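Quick question, first post here. What does this chain look like in 3D?
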Amino acid sequence: MEKTPVEVAGNCALVVVDVQKGFEDAFWGRRNNPDAERNIAALIDVWQETGRPVVFVRHDSPARSRSPLRVGYEGNDFKDVVEERRGKGPGPELLVTKSVNSAFYGEPDLDGWLKGAGVRQIVIAGIQTNMCNETTARMGGNLGYDVLFALDAMHTFDLAGPFGWSATADELTRATAVSLHGGRFARVVTTGEVVAAAR
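> Answer (accepted):
Ran it through. Tokens below.
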């Protein structure tokens, strides 16, 4: 796919997925991209400075589960980089809670909120690259949104799969980027490109 200049609409929504304390738990294993939180913060700051809509998504695992993201456990809370920015911008802000991989299957209805505001473009950032971020991007593409996937404003973890296979966090990140971009579900971009276009 040809690289086209990044353009950010005046009402483009930033969707910040699952930036929660529970992802700092050793439960998940080795992560990649130590700059993810800094880049997430840069995106939120620009969105709030320009009055664009920001959606904060929180994964609520069942309280009875062993997940570090379970309801009632401190791991369910947003990381400070997000929590200290919530409610600070003049633009519209939404909190979506979910218990599955896609932010479009949460409460309140993200698709309805975006369409009600006339939003046709979204930027996705957060955790994890190949899980909830990728699922949200695929659904966003299927729903007709112009999806920008800010690859350096997210991270993931090494993962074991079937047949004795495994993949590192960096390998999973590359596979997600190729699948989304090559499959035209989303345009994979950098934080720098998005920030420059949004100012």
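The CA atoms of residues 108 and 148 lie 22 Å apart.
The chain has six helices and nine strands.
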